[in-house]
Structures
1.
Amino acid sequence: MADDVFKALADPTRRRILDELADRNGQTLFEICARLTTRHGLGLSRQAVSQHLAVLEAAGLVVSRREGRYKFHDLRTDPLKHIVSRWLGPQPPESTP
């Protein structure tokens, strides 16, 4: 599973998609494409973005849900938490000065 996550994160376009979903979860494919174009200057086709979303979904970083005619995409951070805990272990609570 971690290999899929690393593969998904290796591509800068997929990282931008995750950034956009972190900024605003529950976006449609059309919304993601529009944000990639306006905020990052990426003129990708819907098919290309859909393929990137499929890789992210296979890695468990994105989950999609259908509501009527629309398909919404949501960020899942559990795979990232697993990777962080793998090397950093449990973190003690931060103390405030």
2.
Amino acid sequence: MKSYIESLEWRYATKKFDSEKRVSDKDLNLLLEATRLSASSFGLQPYHVFIITDPDIRHSLKEASWGQSQITDASHLFVFANIKNFGPELIDSYLKEVSDIREIPAEGLKAYGEFMKSKLVDLPEDVKENWTAKQTYLAMGNLLSAASTMQIDACPIEGFEAEAYDEILKLHEKDLTTSVVVAVGYRSKEDETQHLKKVRRPKESLFTHIY
């Protein structure tokens, strides 16, 4: 297996996928687990991820994605949808999981729950939506990194009409909205982008050490 840095050097935003190559169920489950284990503020993970293979739905989503071929040609399409608004129930459900998994009495988590609620529940709705959307990008980063270490290609996509996605996937019924999309699969030999040198800002201009 390549080193982590070599894997990041290898990956690029794949523009043309080989529509005949599929990600195996075993590898897909590893990608799902890497996504599930992503960091998230307070551990709340205020989003849901849809993995779409249905060709009709993906054709509709392609039309809402400026005709980008990755939407239909990739093996799997990950749609990250963040919660638009929430109340104390989001925190309560998380604390129940903490109590169950760590075998901690719920009463012992009450103070922590009240702290989280004091910081989040009364925020304006637009601030909540912006915060939950940011959490999806943390999960997406894990997905992209995991895929690269497995030599699986991926393309993060922001070029789409969120309202159309929400309608096609009926997200309004779940109080969710589309945040970001990732096409996952294997690059086509015809994708010329893979031969381009990776361009990133040099360390000297990106990082500042403060001693």
